[in-house]
Design brief:
single chain, about 200 residues, alpha/beta, Rossmann fold, 7-stranded mixed sheet, 6 helices, 7 strands, about 25% helix
Length: about 200
Amino acid sequence: MAERPSWNSEYEGSPPWDIGRPQPDFVRLADAGKLAGQVLDVGCGTGEQVMLAATHGAEALGVDIAELAIQRAREKAQERGILATFQVGDVMHLDRLGRQFDVITDSGLFHVFSDSERPAFVSSLRSALRPGGTYYMMCFSDEQPGDWGPRRVSKAEIRASFTDGWSVRSIEPAQFAIAIAIESERAQAWLATIERL
């Protein structure tokens, strides 16, 4: 397995996925009332999706393995006066949180996992999402041209990862806003709505 970068070191600078605001597709979900109840954001980075859910009335928790990202998230929430919780943790072991959520959000995490890691990640998600709960996942799309950035993911790969005990409700084209200069400053993504049965 290829060695993954140290996620903490990514936050010593400003990573391209940290745009200083929530992703527009998640703003649309929040505005539609989809980020409600107890919400967990996995791989939360500096916490924009967590704070988005919190400002829409959710009890929101963000988990990330990078201590520096969690520190920045806490500082931003305090500066903005937003009541949200952030915790250093391994998304491969969400059972260690000891609770289940109504909604899990994922903005750019799923695509970092290899084929062999995906089943363990999906099992971890299952441990933290209540039956009937929804996982909203945005990942890099195989529709994105070029070879820069993270691994591309196909609709078929998403469907294959969420079979037993899950229902893939939709996989819609979406776009990541990114903080690097490419042609459009947006990258092609899939936004999947997946229910735990």
